[in-house]
Amino acid sequence: MNPSGGLQWHWRAWRSQALWRPTCEQISTSLAQLAPASSELLLIGASAGWMMPSRWLQGFAKVTTWDIDPLAAPLFRWRHAAALKASGSELVCRTGDALAGFGQLLGKHPDACIFFDNVLGQYRFHFKNPEQAAQKIDRVVRSLRGREWGALHEVCSGPVTRRCPGASWPAMRRRVQGSPDSAAFAQDWLTQLGAKGAWLDHLTSTVFEKDTVVSHIAWPFKPDYCHWLQIGWVRH
Ligand SMILES: C[S@@+](CC[C@H](N)C(=O)[O-])C[C@H]1O[C@@H](n2cnc3c(N)ncnc32)[C@H](O)[C@@H]1O
Question: Do residues 156 and 228 touch, judged by C-beta distance below 8 A?
Answer without folding.
Answer: yes
